[in-house]
């Protein structure tokens, strides 16, 4: 006699196990996809911050303008304190 019934149930179990593995793979895959998406968002954010730090002040390839000229008043030009009053 040949018993085909146990082999069918074994095949059924094997199919159920494979289906379970496929479902688990999909769950892992969605988690991996989420992690990769978060990683890409983080990389874009860091790149944006780096660009902000390295961007020239004038922007768009133009030369940076020189700082505003200092006051030409005699007090500034002397570079030292100007005595006021009688300190003798």
From TrEMBL:
Residues 11-22 have a biased composition (Basic and acidic residues). Residues 64-78 have a biased composition (Low complexity). Residues 1-22, 49-88 are annotated as: Disordered. PANTHER family: OS08G0427800 PROTEIN, PTHR34780:SF8. This is Predicted protein. It comes from Hordeum vulgare subsp. vulgare (Domesticated barley).
């Amino acid at each position: 006699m040949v018993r085909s019934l146990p082999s069918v149930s074994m095949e059924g179990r094997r199919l159920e196990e494979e289906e379970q593995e496929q479902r688990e793979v999909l769950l892992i895959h969605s988690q991996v996809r989420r992690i990769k998406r978060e990683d890409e968002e983080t990389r874009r954010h860091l790149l944006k911050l780096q660009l902000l730090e390295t961007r020239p002040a004038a922007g768009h390839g133009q030369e940076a303008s020189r700082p505003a000229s200092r006051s030409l008043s005699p007090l500034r030009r002397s570079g030292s304190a100007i005595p006021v009053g009688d300190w003798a």
